[in-house]
Write a structure and sequence with these properties.
2 copies of one chain form a homodimer.
Chain A (H helix, E strand, L loop, with lengths): L3 E11 L4 E9 L4 E8 L3 E7 L5 E8 L4 E5 L1 E4 L6 H13 L3 E10 L10 E8 L15 E5 L1 H9 L6 H13 L7
Parallel strand pairs in A: 4-9
Antiparallel strand pairs in A: 1-2, 2-3, 4-5, 4-7, 5-6, 5-10, 8-9
Chain lengths: ~180, ~180
């Protein structure tokens, strides 16, 4: 597979959530091009399943698409944070739930064409009960409990359009087919 | 659902593929915050199924993640372009294939937390045969033919990590369950 060598890298913007770089690259045949890249420190996404089989999802307003978005629990890795620890932390902050088990399903790239972010996907089997949420100061999250069939109906009718949620669901089915009724 | 009102918008960077804006927003309870947003004009993704049931996927080096990435056919909408036209165009350019039918499955958001891009997902049933590819000047694409089971094995073992591909696969299963062996 042909790789692309970086000739020069220029920092365009250093933000709170990401930074932007502009790279001059050279392909193996000598062709030169420019790649604009959004650098992001990575995140986790958690498929959260209750003992009764229902799923916990969160709904929040997403300014980038100017819509409320229904998604699995997710959040950004702190510097040096272990992804599994982050998964437990975000689960508790966003939903008030704790996990009896936290299984790693792998990672996905939300937008590998121009974003460096990788999202580590976990499958949490939750403990009974739910404490109060404790989201970030500027986060407003609504917690929903949905059956497996309700989640799939929302994916079918376009209520769920978030790619990490839809993508994690494919990973979930392939790694835990026993949870998918036939 | 609480929405976020834009108080001020500042253009940070105007690039080739995206631009970056920094927004001051106000939540409904008066809390103020900053949202950094990557604006992107939108794209299409095409699940491409041959008459013999095999799938066409493309592999290319993705500089943002410094890895070769195996993905469904995809590409960026030109200004004013109809998504279905774009799907036919990208299918031909990237794979050399034409479609006998092009069914719209809906759209997904690759990264709604900070990217505005929406990706329109199509299911193409291909015609027989394949012409030469005609990718963009700085694109190097490898075309692969994979059985349904090979695609799912690659999703299971982490060879496929692209969220539009994994997410589109969930949409595909829910809209065309007859293609999924039980």
């Amino acid at each position: 597979m042909q790789i692309e060598r970086t000739l020069k890298s220029e920092l365009i913007y250093e933000g709170r959530v990401f930074r932007v770089e502009r790279l001059d690259v050279e392909l193996e045949d000598g062709t030169r091009s420019v790649r604009e890249i959004v650098r992001h420190g990575g995140a986790v996404g958690v498929i959260a399943r209750k003992p009764d089989g229902k799923h916990i999802l969160v709904r929040q307003y997403r300014k980038a698409v100017e819509l409320p978005s229904l998604e699995i629990v997710a959040g950004t890795l702190e510097a040096g944070e272990d992804p599994a620890e982050c998964a437990h932390r975000e689960l508790l902050e966003e939903s008030g739930c704790t996990a009896a088990s936290m299984r790693y399903l792998g990672k996905l790239y939300p937008s590998p064409g121009y974003v460096s972010e990788e999202i580590h996907i976990f499958l949490a089997v939750l403990n009974e009960g739910r404490a109060a949420q404790n989201p970030d100061e500027d986060e407003r999250l609504e917690v929903l409990e949905m059956s497996h069939a309700q989640v799939e109906a929302a994916m079918w009718d376009g209520t769920i359009r978030d790619s990490k949620t839809l993508g994690a669901w494919t990973m979930y089915r392939l790694h835990a087919p026993e949870d998918f009724p036939r």
